[in-house]
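Is 3,4-dihydroxyphenylalanine placement plausible here? Inputs below.
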Amino acid sequence: MGAAAAATVVKKEDVITSHPQNNVSENIFLKIGTNLHHRPDHPLGIIKNAIFDYFEQKNPGKFRKFDDLYPVVKVTQNFDELLIPADHVSRSPNDTYYVSDEAVLRCHTSAHQAQLLREGNAAFLVTGDVYRRDTVDATHYPVFHQMEGVRVFEPEEWEGAGLDPTEYAERELRAELEGLAKHLFGDVECRWDTAATFPFTDPSIELEILYNGEWLEVLGCGVMQQSILEDNLAAGGGKKAWAFGLGLERLAMVLFNIPDIRLFWSEDERFLKQFKAGDLTTTFQSFSKFPPCYKDMTFWLSDEFTENNLCEIVRGVAGDIAEEVKLIDEFTHPKHGRTSNCFRITYRSMERSLTDEEINKIQDQVRADAVTKLGVELR
Ligand code: DAH
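Reply from A.M.:
I modeled the complex. Tokens:
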């Protein structure tokens, strides 16, 4: 029942392949198997264990916990089994890391729902690292961590309550997750956004909490699409389930007041020493503020150019000193119709001062890579 913390061993050739669709980069490969959520003293481990405690107190022994499922999954697991349409944006290689045309680095922990139902699980929590190609800023990092929850109900349960199955599952879901928000954040006000849509739930809803005067989205959830239950769980057609998915970094940034998502990857004692297993009360104190360094680059766009592709190059060259990549100017030439973009790249280390020399070298390499890998024309 306990969440075993076995190491995930991933070989480079398992994720960086010669397949034409492969777009996993070296620095992404290097993150696989780190499993920050396995560390009880790390903010992500602290949040994960607090969520486990909540579910355990409310439903002793009910939820089976999965903590180390392999992050390379089939395209069918990540998308098809969740009824994500063939033309959905999240399937694009601009957004998702493809190992081949048949396998991806999971972009959400929902990728394990169907498989775990098929294995006969009716109540479970899955925590893991997930991967998305994205922009560079304080809240986006190409690897982050999610927790997925699923609970299946039997007809006796909704019949006993005198409710129809969907109403019953939704009522239980709301109560369970409002309780979770209060367990983590104290006596916060909660509200539900019913305009949300996910292909795998109906209805779909999002939980928001009022925290320090601001409404914050905490998680997405809903009543599981009946066909997912029917197709995967034995006799699932006659049952009903809820599902939710939440981002651990997002919750930890709010709860501990962590200002930048890169900090989760820091091995700096001045960061790590501030957190203690089981303690949700830490307010992170910035240990120092090093100056940012801004570099602008302007270029004519190419067919291969996308903002995510540029961000991948910046991360590949600069690693965690890449703080932000931001479009600051866009212009289309009136005569020849080509479009030019100007991006401002902010470099800053969380741990030390950077020298002009090292930044200039990095920026030169970013410019060179943008030309050779994306075919843009520098101005
Ligand atoms: N997989 C969704 C995401 O990454 C989150 C999510 C939403 C998970 C609703 C669920 C759910 O299980 O029911 O954005």
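Short version: Confidence is low (pLDDT under 50) at residues 1-5.
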